[in-house]
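the two lines:
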Amino acid sequence: MNYKGDIFYIEQVLTGKSNSFSYIVDRHKDKAYNLAFRICGNHEEAEEIAQDSFLKAYRSLKGFKMKSSFATWLYRIVYNTAISNVRIKKKGVLSLEDFPADATDFIGSNTSEEDAEKEYRSSLINFALQKINEEERGLISLYYYEEMSTEEISDVTGISKSNIKVKLFRARQKMLEIIEKVEKKKLIYHE
Amino acid sequence: MNNQEKNKEDLLRQYINPERIEKAPEGFTSKVMTHIQIQTVPLKSAGRLRNKNLVPVISIVFTIILLVTAFLMPGSEADPSALPVVKLIKTIKLSLPEINFTSIFRFNLPALLIYVFIGILILTLFDRTLNVLFHRKEE
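prediction for all of em together
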């Protein structure tokens, strides 16, 4: 496989070959989109944020010092764009009633019970994410989905390592409380 | 604390599957690239606009330089009329054809107006020349 690093394509773009940026977009689009989606919780907005972030990255590519990895630099842009986007479009708080009580609600015509359970868990996590604040959502997403260390998260968010640990602990607690409440509701529903 | 112990303690990992990430929709890359291509075009026209604005700026700067040079050129006498500019104006002998306005219109124009018209004509030609020069540069 002819694999070339981000730096190769960045240098190509900087010499005027703007089409080389498509390789960079292709390589990082899913992770950028996922981070945006976890923070804003909406597919349309996530697409808008991810696109906006790539445009910002393209425009400020000259300013990329190559001290950190391109991915870290891009995540910083996505994270900040998503956080400010969510702050502008503050939505109402979701109530527990907004979440379906049972995994059977996720069973479609061709879905097995196991797949429905996976879908239920995934939706439950998305629901719990929407109940915590946007900054915590970003941290949870970077830690669990992008599997970054607290040091890497610190590079992306600009928050100190010790503060990240505290914030992650609180966010985790909040999410587990929400999950617990939903699971209790599920039990009551079955009784 | 090793990773295994950490995973055991971390209940959230039971729910979060890092492999299950939300993927960017189809055509995402082409959409981004289209936006980039659209955005790079206005940047070029902004450059053209800057060049166009340079025309009057250059004209003004050129005129100011000429005026300042003319006034700063040292004269030989203390008399203000000895200034080279004044001297030059005094020595100008224009042999313009005399136009008898009364033969065309029923009023007479002051002689100074002829100079004003000629001045406007010269400046217009100068402006057009600069304009043509900068248009050629753009192409």
